[in-house]
Design a protein that fits this description.
Rossmann fold; binds 2'-deoxycytidine-5'-monophosphate; 12 helices; 2 domains; 348 residues; five-stranded parallel beta sheet; 60s Ribosomal Protein L30, Chain: A; alpha/beta; five-stranded mixed beta sheet
């Protein structure tokens, strides 16, 4: 059934010249029409805004120069918003389409961003939303997931820390890591809770640095390979996530723990960069190790995590891949904020 849909887009112009403004706007409109399979005749109207520094041309003019001769247009200048990108053109395209709200593709080009990400989530929606972040070791999941949760005032759970805590307990109590029944029995005794939105506790005690030690690093994949362990761990994680309002990071969040999460991200980065990041993270926690050893360990862990029989690391079919090799954590967080804004149909 055809309905009216609203599609958002934004782009950054190279300069405040007539040419640059029209070129950037035309590129954005063309990309939006293509991405949403729209023809000229489907368009109902288009609203354009430009930041106050765009004075050389009305962005709306681009619709005419590219041949959209019938559609009603409105063009306005935005208020100056502190910290907003300069030379930014935004559009809101109304069109008739068979696409559902979930299928509509909103586009942000050339670094354009959601304008007021703090408005992107309304209270009730925020308190229910869950965000799944998966990816291999050292891709930067923890930094990104933690800052995202802080920015959106949501809870944060590092599920890797739960596997690490179990491993540490198993090593401490000399449980055979090849004995999945003994590991599962041990896990049954462990009670995990989230205090103050992001502090993971085990049987009421905060988790210490032991869970990041080399012994744990080397053993954790063996513990995480058992399906009986994973099944119980997933149940514990789902219990913590039950009421939503949470950003969860791990290896199987989008596929097993929160298969219905509306926002799923698969974070990747190249191997050398991941080793470098893991080394910095370890240094900040007081653990020193040569880069080559870390790179080797990461490779081994990637291999074990992605080839194990029980829920191996893989991207959920509906997850968005973000390659963060060349992106700062802030840029990755902003990219996910854009996804959140699009998902929640909040204002740009
Ligand atoms: O993210 P991390 O390095 O702290 O994770 C530790 C280990 O736990 C890692 O080798 C894979 C495993 N893990 C998992 O299998 N599933 C998860 N959801 C999280 C971590």
């Amino acid at each position: 059934m055809r309905e009216i849909i609203a599609i958002r887009g934004a782009t950054i112009c190279e300069a405040n010249t007539r040419d640059a403004v029209l070129r950037a706007t035309e590129e954005l409109l063309t990309a939006l029409l293509d991405a949403n399979r729209l023809k000229d005749k489907d368009l109902v109207s288009i609203v354009f805004t430009g930041t106050p520094d765009i004075t050389a041309a009305f962005p709306a003019l681009a619709a005419r120069t590219m041949g959209l001769s019938d559609v009603p247009l409105l063009c306005a200048q935005e208020l100056a918003v502190e910290g907003a990108p300069k030379l930014c053109v935004r559009v809101l395209v109304y069109a008739e389409s068979c696409l559902s709200r979930q299928e509509v593709k909103h586009l942000y080009l050339h670094g354009a961003q959601v304008l007021r990400s703090e408005l992107a989530l309304k209270g009730a929606h925020r308190s229910r939303l869950s965000i799944a972040i998966d990816g291999p070791a050292g891709a930067g999941k923890s930094t990104v997931a933690r800052s995202l949760a802080e920015a959106l005032n949501m809870r944060y759970l590092d599920t890797g820390a739960m596997y690490r805590a179990l491993t540490w307990q198993a090593l401490k109590h000399s449980v055979d890591l090849q004995d999945d029944r003994a590991l599962t029995a041990l896990l049954e005794e462990l009670r995990f809770t989230l205090e103050d939105a992001s502090r993971l506790t085990l049987n009421g005690e905060p988790l210490g640095e032991e869970i990041r030690s080399q012994r744990v690093n080397q053993a954790v994949s063996r513990v995480a390979q058992w399906s009986s362990v994973r099944k119980l761990m997933v149940a514990k994680q789902q219990e913590i996530a039950e009421f939503g309002g949470i950003v969860m990071e791990g290896r199987d969040i989008g596929t097993e723990v929160l298969p219905d999460a509306p926002i799923k991200v698969f974070l990747v980065a190249d191997h050398a960069e991941r080793a470098r990041r893991r080394q910095l993270e370890m240094q900040s926690q007081g653990h020193v190790a040569p880069l080559t050893d870390i790179a080797e360990q990461i490779k081994e862990r990637d291999n074990k995590d992605s080839t194990r029989m029980a829920s191996p690391l893989r991207k959920a079919a509906d997850a968005v891949t973000i390659d963060c090799t060349l992106l700062s954590p802030e840029e990755v967080v902003q990219t996910i904020m854009n996804l959140v804004a699009v998902e929640t149909h909040a204002g740009i």
